[in-house]
Write a structure and sequence with these properties.
It contains 3 helices and 12 strands. The chain is of the alpha+beta class. A hairpin with a 2-residue loop joins strand 6 and strand 7. The termini are far apart.
């Protein structure tokens, strides 16, 4: 019995390795992308009187940049006193990596202060917010299991170097309603 199990497991492992090698070869020529820290689609939030102000961010990988069909990743530097407002992503998981600074993370019913290098796994439909605590910025990476949120981020921002007019409360409300499949705010 143990021999059959071990032989079956080995066969599955070898098939997986062969499939992975084949996949790696094709991805290396069609879907691979290497970006430096400051490379990607550079954007700036349109100020809406929120604590992110005109903070810059970089869309690194998504269906428009990549071409990743299933993942979305962006980076952002939140200034001291900045925050990510309370929100949730329906049907999408998110991984948040807080690389620098100190933050207070509100995840569901849990609140915790974390330091540099903290990672947060956010299940779908879970309320999340982050407050920068301390005097240094928080540099973060956000990774999503499905595309959608990046379109909201584009709608509330402009490309770096473009004219940046403040976003009105009415316009922000309309954008949030249009993108409620990807993000909901309290």
């Amino acid at each position: 019995m143990h021999f059959r199990f071990a032989a079956g497991a080995l066969a599955i492992l070898l098939c997986g390795i062969a499939a992975g090698q084949q996949s790696t070869r094709s991805q290396a020529t069609t879907n691979a992308l290497i970006l430096e820290k400051q490379e990607g689609e550079r954007r700036v939030h349109r100020s809406a009187g929120t604590s992110t102000g005109n903070a810059p961010f970089i869309l690194k990988f998504d269906p428009a940049n990549g071409p990743s069909q299933h993942l979305v990743m962006f980076t952002e530097d939140l200034p001291p006193g900045g925050s990510i407002p309370v929100h949730k992503h329906p049907q999408r998981e998110e991984i948040l990596i807080l690389q620098t600074g100190h933050s207070r993370v509100h995840l569901g019913t849990t609140t915790r202060e974390v330091g540099p290098g903290a990672s947060v796994l956010i299940p779908p439909d879970t309320w999340i917010s982050v407050d920068v605590v301390g005097n240094e910025p928080v540099s973060l990476i956000a990774i999503f299991s499905e595309p959608g949120f990046e379109q909201y981020m584009r709608a509330i921002s402009v490309q770096e170097g473009e004219p940046n007019t403040p976003i009105s409360k009415t316009e922000l409300k309309s954008i949030r309603e249009h993108h409620n499949h990807a993000v909901n705010y309290k």
